[in-house]
Protein 1
Amino acid sequence: MKENKKKPAQSSRIFIIIWGFVMHIIFLWGVMDANFHSPIIQGLPVVPMPSGSPAKRILVFVADGLRFRTFKSFTPPYLNSIIKKGGVWGISHTRMPTESRPGNIAIVAGLYEDPSALFKGWKENPVDFDSVFNQSRASWLWGSPDIIPIFTKGNNHNIHGASYPASWQDFSNEPGATKRLDDWVFQEYSKWLANEAPAYKTEDKIIFYFHLLGCDTAGHAAKPQSKQYVDTMIQLDRNIKKVVDNTENYFGKHTTAYIFTSDHGMTDWGSHGSGSTDETETPFVAWGAGIAKDSNTIDIKQADITPLISALVGIPVPVNNEGVLHHELLDPKNDEFIANALLTNAKQLAEQIKANRELTTGRSIVNQFYKDKEYHEKLARAERILDKGATEKSITELEYVTKLSEEVLTYYRRYQTDRFLFCLMLMWVGWIALLFVDLSGLPRRTIQLGCYSWMLLANIALGVASIPLFIEYAVAGCKEWRLFGYGMICVISLWLAFRGIIKKGPTLEIDSNKPFIEALGIVFLTFMMFVGLIYRWTFSISMLVAVGLQKLIFDRNAPSWLLITGAALVVFPLLPVVGPQPRVYIVLIALGVSIVPIIRKRRIHNYNKVIEVIRIILTSLLCLNVIDGRAWLSWLLLLSTPLVISLYPKDWNQRIFGVTVALLSPLALLSASYEPIFFLIFATHIQHWPTFEFSQKSESGLRVLRLRNFSTAAFLMLYTLLCFFGTGNMASLSSFDPSWTRHFLTVFSPFTMASLILLKFVIPLILVGCLIRALAPDSTIFSAVLLLGDCLAIPLMYGVTNQGSWLDIGSAISRFAIAIVLPCLLLLVFYLTQPFTTFSLQDFLRRRAIKNQRLKI
C-alpha cells in the first residue's frame, strides 16, 4: 500500500521537474525572442521610384568615427566650401548602439540595428535585408574588411566590393598607419575610373560607397581631440576633392551626386557605443546633381539618408527602410519629382506598416492603431492632391505622412513585444503558483463535490481561453504564430496552477516569533537584490537588512562576529569597482592580516600552520614580483590548494577555516586591489553562522516548507550576488583584464586567462557552497531559492531591452539571466564543494592502509 501511495507522489515530482525545466527554457527563450526578434519582414513589395531622377550616379563617403563637434570646429577646406555655396549640410543623428555595423546599415538600408544580430554574430552575416545596393544597377564598395563583406557576401550579381587586409587596422599610433587605410580606398576608385569606368559612362542607377576607417583608427589610438585625428580628416578632405574633380571631369558636370557623412561619433577618450552627444551626432554634407543649396544647418536621422540616395539616382527605396525623405535637401526646381519621390517613400512605408499590422493583429480592425488609419487616409488625400497638380500642398501633406510612419511602426512592434511579455509573465506566475503549491501544499484529505465542480470549471476555462487565440490566429489572419504559441502555453500554465491549488492545500509552517517582520524582511531583501543588480551600491542596504534579519532570527544565539562582519560587508558595494591597475599594498595587507589567526588558532595542527604560513609568504613575494612565479610556482600554489584543504579535520569550524586560508593564496595572485580583504571578512561571516540544522519536518512528520527556509534562501542568494558585486559590477563580470592573470601567464592565452578570471569569481562562491552543506543539505532550501529566484525574474524580464549601447543591452540580459540561473548556480556549488567539506587525506590513506592489510591477510 505504501508503495502504491509513493508512486503518484513520485510521478507528480517527476512531472514538476520536467515541467519546470520546460518553463525555464520557454521563459528564457521567450524574453529573448520578444526583444531580439528581427524586425525585418521578407517578401515586401518593391515600390518603384518615379522617372526623372536628377543624378545618374552617387558617391557616398562614410568617415568612420568622425564626430560632428570636431568636424564643425576644424571644418576641412573643401567641404567647407561646399557648405558655404555648393550644397546642404547638417547633423545626422544616429541611434544606439553607436557602432560601425548599425551605422553603415542605417545609411544604406534605412534600417536600424537588427536586434537578432546580437545572437548571430555580425561580421560575416549574409545580407538578409534590402539595401540601396540591391536596388541599384551596379554598386562598388571599398573599405574595411569588417564592413564591406556585410553587403557583398552572398550577392555577387550587381554588388562589387574589395577590402584591405585586416592587419592594416592597427591601433598602435604609428605615423601614416591611419592615412594608409583611406588612401587605399581612394586609389581603388582611381583604378576603377581608369579601367572599368568606360563600360558604365552612360549608365544610371550607379552607387559608389567609400568606407573610410582612418578617423576611427586615429580616434582610438590618439583620441579625437588629437592632431593626428584632425590631420586624418584634412587628408580625407583632400582626397574627396581629388575624387570629385576626377569624377566631374570624366562623367561631366551635373550628373553625379555626393554625400559625406559618418556612421558614428566618438567620445573624448576614444570610445563609442553609447548615447552621448559626441557619439550620436555626425556630420552630413550633400552636393551635386539634384541637391539644394542652403548653408543653414539641417537635422536629419541617419536612416533618412537611404531614401535620399534612392531619390537621387532613381532606384526603389529598400523595402525594409524606415527613413523619411527630407524635401528640403533636394533642388526645389524639381518640385514635381520631389512630390512623387515623397509619395513613393510614403507608399513604401505603408507596405511596412501593413505587414507589421498583419503580423501582429491580423486582418482584424479591432486592434488597429488609430494613427494607422489616419496615415492611410492622409496618404490617399495627398495622392489626390498631387493628381490635381497642387505640388507644394501635396509635399506638405506627404511630409506629415512620412513622419507619422515612425510612430505607427513603433506602435505595432511595441504592441507585439508587450503581448509576448504579458503572456510570458502570466505563464511564469502560473509556474510559480504551481511550484509553491507542490512544495508547500498538503494533499486534501477529502475532495468534496465542490472541488470536482472547480476542476470542471478549470477545464472549461482552458477551452474558453483557447478560443480567442485560435480565432485571432486562424480566422483573423494573424501571421504571428509565436503569439498563439506563447498564449497557449500561458493558458496551460495557469490551468495547471489552478488544478494544483484545488488538489492541494498550500501550507507554510511559521517557525518565527515575529513572522510578519521576517516575511516583510524577506520580501524587502528580494526587492533590494533586484535593485542591486541595477545599482550596485544598494547591496549595502541589502546587507544591512540581512544583519537585522539574522539578529531577529537567531536572537540570543546570533554570534557577535556574524553581525560585526555582516556590518563590515556593507562597505564594499560602496567602494569603486576593482580596476585594472594593481594596488599591491592592499593585497599584502590582507595576506599579513591572515597570518594572525593562523598562528593563534589553537585547534589547528602545527604542520597545517607551517604550510599555510609558507604559502602566504611565497604569495607575498610573488605579488611583490620578488619571485617570478609564472613558470611553475604560482601554478603550484593554485593546484595544491585542494590537497592542502584535505589536510584539515572534517569538523565544520576547522574545515571552513582551512578552506578560507588555502583559497586565499590563489585569490591574492588573481587580485588587483581589495578582493582578498573582502574575501577574509566574507569568510569570517560564513564561519560564524550557527551550524545547527533546520528540521524540515512538521509535528505530523510530513516535510513542509517553512518560513525559515525562505530566510535562509534569501541569505544564500544575497551571498551569491555579493560574491560578484562586492568587488565588481555588471561590466566587470564580462571584462577581460590581462593584468589579473599576470602572475600565471607569460604569453597571451584567451582561454587560460578566461578560466583563471572565472576561477577568481568562483573562489568566494565555494564558501557559500560550504555554508549550504553545513546548514541544511536538503532540497527544501533549493526549492525556496528557486521560488525567490523565479519571483526575482519577473521585474527583470521587463528590463531586457534591445535599445542602448552594447553594454546596456548586455547588462540587461545578464541581470535577467542571473535571476534564472541563480538556483542552478547554488545547486552547482553545493555539489562542487562536496570534496572541500568531506574529503580527508588522512582518512583516505588510513582506509587504503587498512584495505591493503586485509588483502595481505
Note: The first helix runs from residue 2 to 36.
Protein 2
Amino acid sequence: MKRRLIIILSLLVAAIVGGSYVGDRMLKSKGHPGLRKFLHQWWVNYPASFAVEPEVVELKVDQTDLDALENVVHAARDRGVIMREGNDYVPAEFTAGGNTFKVKVRIKGKMADHVKGDKWSFRVQARKDNGFKGMQRFSLQHPGTRNYLCDWFYHRLMKGEGIIALRYGFVRLHFNGEDLGIYAYEEHFGPELLANNDRLKGPLFRFDPGLFWQHRLNMIEKVRYNEPFAAYQAAELDAFGSGDMEKDTVQRRYFEEAVALMDAFRRGVLPAAQVFDADKIARRHAILDLVGGHHSMDWSDVKFYYDPLLKRIEPVAYESFSAFPIRSLAGSNRYVGGFKQSMDLHDAYFNDTVVFAAYVHHLERVSRPEFLDSAFTVLAPALDSASAMIYREFPYKELDRDIYRHNQMIIRRMLDVPKGFHAYAAPATDSLRLTIVPIEGLPIEVLGAVAADGRVLPMAKRTIVPCRPPGSVGTPMEARIPLDDRWRSSPPQKVELRYRVLGATTEKTLEVFPYAYLDSVSTPAFAPPSGYDVRTVAWLVVDEGARTIVVKPGAHIVSEDVYIPAGYSVRAVAPLRIDLVKGARIVSRSPMHWKGLEDSPITLLSSDQGGGGLLLVSTGGSSVFEHVRIEGFGPTASTVPSIVLQEAPSQWVRCALGEVQARDLMQVVRGAVTLTDCRFTGGADQLKLAYTNASLEKVELRGAADDALLVKGGAARISEAVVYAASGDALAVDEAATVTVDRSTLEATKDAIEVSEGATLVVEGGRITSAKGSAIEVKQLHARHGPSTVTLKGAVVEANDPPKIGKGNKVTINGGAPMGSTVP
C-alpha cells in the first residue's frame, strides 16, 4: 500500500513537472515570459479585477440580420480577409447606461482575427442625436485586436502630444443576450472626434485601401503578378463621411484643397513641411518609436485631418500595433537628400529636413526616463482602472513597462552615433575641401571645422550627410569650409569637424583623414606593373641627379603604357610628335613642362584611334603646356577622358585640343587650372572641372556633342570665352560651385546654362543664346545644398523658350526677376 502511494505520488509529481515544462514552453512560444509569471499574474491580477466593474453595453439584432452578419463572418474565415463587398450595415439596438437607441452595425476589420471565435468585431453607427460616450461612430472588438492595454496607453500618449487621438476603453458586451465578455471600444472618424480633440471641423481622410486589399487577397490566395494598382502612388484619397460632405459645399471645398496638397506632395512639387504639420508628424513618429509601433507605418493604415485654417494636413492616431522591442527607428535609413516620386509615404516624410529635425528633437525628449515616469504617474489612476477591466477576462495581459524602457534605451543609443561619417581632406589654402562618405542610418549635419582656438568655422553651405543605404557603401559627397586668416596663420595640428544628428542638441567631433579621397568622379590611382622601370623607355632621357625626364625630340609611336613616377620634372620641346596606339597611355605623377612653337606645336595623337590618353595624377607641382596640340585619341577608351588632371595643377597657353564626339576631352579633378588663348574642338563633354579652382581667359569651345563646360563644386572665373554650337549645355554649374563669367558668348542648341545644387553664378555682359531651349535653367531647390543663386548683369539673352527657374532659388536677370516659367 505504501509502495503504491509512493508510485502514485511520484507519477503525480512527474506529471506536474512535465506539464509545467510543456506549459512554460508553450507560453514562451507565444511571447509570454513563462509559467511562473503567468501564475503570478493570475494570482495578483484576477482578484484586482474586482476593484472595478466594467460598464455593460448590449447590442441586439434580429435573426435575419444576424444571418447576414454570420455570412460575412463565414466568408471572411474562408478567405482570410474581410472584404467590403457584401458587408453591409444592418439595423440593431444598442443599450448603454439604461439608454436604448437604434443603430446600424456591420462586421468591422480587415483581417480574420476580427471574426475569431464568438468575439466578432462590430462597427456601430448611431443616429446624429444619439451615441455612446460622445461617439456617433465607434467599434466594438476583441481587446486582443489592439493588443489589450497597449493601444489604451498609446492613445493617451498621443493625446498628451496634441495629436488627434481616438477614444478607446473597455466594456462588457452582451450580444443578443449572450455575455461575450470584455470588449474594447474604439472611436471611428467623424466630427465628434475632432470636437473631442479641440479641432475645427474639417475633412478626415485616408488613402483608399480598397485596391491595396485586393493585392493582400491575391497574396493570401497565392496569386502572384505585377499589381501596379496596389501602390501608394496609385491610391486615391478617400474622405470619411463622404455622404455628408456631398451636402456640405464648404467641407467639400476643404477636401479638394487637401487632395491638391497631397497630390503636390506625392509629385514632389511641395515638400512635406509645406503640406503637413511638420511638428505633429514628428511627434507621432517619435511616439511610435517609443511604443514599438512600426507595424502601423503602412500607408494604407494612416489617417489624416485637414486643418482648414492653417491649410496643413495633420496625422490622426490610429491602431499602433505596439509594445514590441525596436531595433531601428521610424526614420532610420530613409534620408537620401532629395525627393523621388518612387518613395513611399514615410520615406518622403523623412526626406524633408524640417520634419526630420523636429522628429529627432522629439525623440530626444520622449527617450528621457522622466518622460515615461511622468506619463505613468499622471495616468496611474486611469491605467489601474483600465487594467482591472482587462484582468477580469485576461489577467495575464499586463502593460509591459519594460518594453517601453527598452525602447527608450535603444532610441538614446541610436541618436548617440559613435561616428557620423568618414571625412577626407586634401591640402588647402583658402578653403578646406572635404570628401564625406556616409556611414550612418540617420542624416548628419556637418556644422564646421574646429580651429586651433576652439572656434568652429562654418560650412560654405548647409551640409547634411545622407544615410548609407543598408547593404551598400556610402556615396561620397563634396563639401567646403572657407578658411580665415587666423586659421591660415595658426592651423590646428589635426583637422576636426563638428557635427550632430540632424535636429539633435548634442554636438560631436570627429577627426578628418589627412588625405584626399579618390571617388567615382576621380581617376583611379593608376599604378605601374611590378618591376616597371621608366629608364627603359627609349624616347625618354632620365637624369637622376637633376631629377628630370626629357622627352627626345622627333616622332615616337607608343604602343605600351608609360608610367612616370613622382619626384621628377618632365620636359619636352618642339619638334615633337607622339602617336599613342593600341590603347597606350602616358600616366605621370610628376609635373610636365612642355613648350612647343606657334608654327611647330608639340602634337599628341592616335593614328589608330585607340589611344588611352594623357593622365596626370597627384603631380606635387604645377605643369605648363604651351603650344601643345591634342588631335584626339579616338573612341576606344571612351569611358576615360582624353586628358585627365587629378590633383595636378596646370597652365595651358595657346593650346589646341580636339577629340572625337564619342569621348570627353578634358577633366580636371581637385586641382587648379589656368587656360589662356586655348581652343577646344569636338568631344562629348569638352571641359569638366570637378572641385577645382579654374581660370579661363579667351578660351574657345566649339562643337561639343554634349555639354561644353561643366563646373562641379570649386570655383571658376571665365573671361572673354566663346562657346559655339554645343549640342547640350554651353555651361552647367552644380554641387555648390561658384562661377563668374564676363564678356563671354555662350551658345547652345538646348538650354545655354544649367545651374543646380546650391551653385552660384554671376554673368556680366556678353551674350547667351539658345537655339531650341532656354537661355538658363535653374533646377529646383536641392535639400542638401540649399538654393542656387544666379545673377545676370547686362547680358544679351536670346532664346526660343523663357528661363526655367525652379522654386526656392535666387535669380536676377538684368536687374529684375526672371520673366520666364517657374518649374517645381
Note: The chain has 14 helices and 54 strands.
Protein 3
Amino acid sequence: MPTSLTLKWRRALRRHGEDRSRQDQHFLALLLDAWSNRRPVGPFGFAVSVATGIGAGATGIALQMALRGPASAPFSVQVAVGATAGAIAMIVTRQRFAAQKARQAATTALASSFLDASRDCVKLLDLQGHMLRINDYGATLMEAASPVQLAGADWLGFWKGDDNDLATAAFRSALNGTPASFRGSCTTTTGQPKWWDSQLIPVKDHAGKVVAVVCASLDITSQTQLLQQLRAKSELMSEMEAHVKLVFFSYSANFEYFHYITAGSSNVFGVEPEEFMRNPHVWRDMVVPEDRAALHAEMARIMAESSEGRAQYRIRKTDGSVRWLRSTGYPVLDDKGNVLRIVGITEDVTVEQERIAELDRLAYTDSLTGLANRAALLREIESRCAAGRPFGLMFVDLDRFKVLNDTLGHLAADHLLRNVGSIIRRSLPGDAYVARLGGDEFAVLIGSVVDKAGLETQAKALLGGLSENRLQDSAGAFITASIGISIYPEHGSGHDALLSSADVAMYAAKKTGRNGYQFAGEEAARTIGDFELERDVPEALATNQFFLHFQTIHEPHSLAVHSAEALIRWQHPRRGKISPGDFIPLLEETGFVEDVGVWVLDNALRQLAAWRQAGSMNLGVSVNVSARQLGSEQIVYEVDRALKQFGIPPGKLEIELTETALMKNPKQAQKSIVELKRLGVRIAIDDFGTGYSSLMYLADFEPHTLKIDRHFTSKIEHDPTTQTIVEGVIDLAHKLGIEVIAEGVEEAAQLEILRQVNCDYVQGYLLSMPQAPEGLITPA
C-alpha cells in the first residue's frame, strides 16, 4: 500500500508536471549534490515536520523536508526519485538548514548554467538503456517536440546495424563501471540520419554499484559529412591519379626542391613521389639530351619573368621507353610580386604526339609511293636554303606517261610509279632526299654532290637505273625519263626559283629527244614559253581561256553561206592571244588535244544549235580532228554524244582530217571513219595535195569532201600548171561523188577561176575573216 510520502510525490508529479525548466534544475542540482556530498545516514524517524520545497516532473521528483532524528537534532532529507522507469535514488544528508539552503542555491545555479551552456545531447539511461531524462537541447537535436516525447524511449533502438553493435558495446562497458565512447549514426525522431560522438559514464551509488548511465552525445553530422566529402574527393583524386597520367606539383621558386607532388608521378615518370622529395632532380636526368636545353631555358624564363610557362619534352624511363611530356608551371606570387613557389601540372602526351606525328606523316608523305610529297619537298628546300649550304635539285619527269596511263590503266600505272620511286632511291646516294611531286613527276635533293660534273654523274646513274630495270609499258616500250637540274644558290635562293629552273631544264631535255638531262641555263630558258603553255592548258580549260572563231564557207556564184569552220583561239591571261600555230602542236604532243578537242566539238555544236534556232536550218559546221583524237576509240562516242546533246542532225557536222592524221595509224583511222560515217557524219580531208598518198586516201577513206590546200589556191591565177592540177582534182572528185572546197581564197581573180572550174565551195579572207559567232550568220 502506498505510503503518504509516495502519494505526495505522485501529487507533486501531477501538480508540477508543466515546470520543465525548474524540474531540470532541481534534477541536476540534486544529482550534483549527491555526488559531491555522499555520506551514509543513521536510523531516523520519519515524522515529517516541514516540506520546504518541491520540484516535480514527469520523470522524477525532488523533495526537501525537515526531519528530526533520535537525538532531536534537526537535519534535512533530500530525495531524488526517478519515477518513470521505477528506479528510485534516495540520498540523505544531514546538515543544518542554513548550510543546506546555501548549497542548494549554489547547486541549482550551477545546474542551470550547465544545462544552458551544454551543446551536447545529455541523457540519463536506466540499466536497461531506456531514457529517464534528456536535456532540452538534446531533444532539439533529436528533432523531438519536447523531452517528454523521448521519455522512456529505448536508446539502443535508435542505432542500427554496425552502429547498434558499437552502442551496445559502449553501454555494456558503462554498466560494468568503465566509461566508454564511440562514434556512429542514428536517426532522429523524424528519420533524419545524424552522426554522434558519444561518451557513456556510469553513475554509481555509495557502494560503487552502477545505478544509471549518463550519455553525452556531440552532434558531429556536419563534420562527418564534410569528412565524407573530403574522403570522396580524395578517393576521386586517387582514382584519377591511378588512371589519368597527370602529375600535380608544387615546386620551389628556384626549381630546387618539391613542396608536394602527387602519386601520379609513378604513372608518368615511373618514379614514386617519395623519390622526388628525396632527389628533386631525378626527373631532369630522365629528359633526353636533345630536349634539355629548351626545357632549362623555359624554366629560367619562368623565374626571370614570373609568368606562366610551358615546355614539351621527352623522357627516357627506367624501362627504356621514351615518353612525351608536357609541363605547365604557374608562379604563385606574394603581395610584392616575388615568386613564392611554382605550382603546375605535368601530363603524358605521348599518344597526342604520336597522332600529330601520324598526321604530319600523312600531310608530308605521298600515299602511293611512300616518298616525301610536294609539301615536304618545299619544306626541305627552304630548310636547306636557310642553312646556306649548296645542294643540287633534280626534276625528274617520266617520258610519255600520259599515254602510258591511258593504255596501261590506272592500277598498272600506279604500280609503275611505285617501282620508279624505288629505282630512284636505289640509284642515288643514301643522303638523297627523294619526293614525288604528283603524277609522273619526281624531285631529288642531293647535298653531298654540288658541282656540275658530280650532278651529271648522278643524273646518268638515275637514267641508267631506269634502263637497267627495264620497266616496260603494255606495248613493250621501255620507260625513260627526262631530268632538269638546278643548283642552289646558282639558280635560285628559294623553292620557287629552284623548282622553276629545274622544271624548265627538264622540259628542254624532253625537247632534245627525251631520256636525257639538262642543267638550268640559257639554253633551257629558251623553252620556257612552251613549258608555260603546256603547264597552263588545264587551267585554260577550267577558266574558259579558250574560245571559238568561225570562218564561213560559201557557194562561189551566189556567195551564200553553206557552212562555217570552227577555229580554236587562246586568250592567255598573261601572254594575251596565242597563235594556234604555237599551241596546237603542243596540245598534240602532250595529249591535251583530246580534252581540248571535246571542248571544241561541244562548243561548235552548241553554236550551230543557236544558229538553227535563229532560223539558219541549212547551215552546217566543220570541226578539225587531230591524229591523236582519230586514233582514240572515244572519238565516235564523243561525236555521237555531242550530236544528241545539242540536237544536231549528223549530216550537218563535218569532221576535217589532215593527211598527217590519216598517216599516223591508217588502220585505226579507217575504223573510226567508217563508224563516224555510219552515224551520218560527213568526212573531209583537209589540206589535200600536200601529202604523199593523197589519191590512196580517196580510195581507202571515201570522204565526202576534199579541201584544196591554200598552197594551190594562192598560185592558181599566175601558174597554169597549178590551175590544171586544181581543175583535175575537182574533176576527179566529182567523178567520185566528192565535193570540193578551195581554201585560202584572197583575190577576186582566184574566185573567178574557181567558178570556171566548177569548184563547189570557197573559203578565204576575200569572203570572210575568222570571227566571233555573234552577227556572223544572217538567218536565211
Note: The CA atoms of residues 40 and 188 lie 42 Å apart.
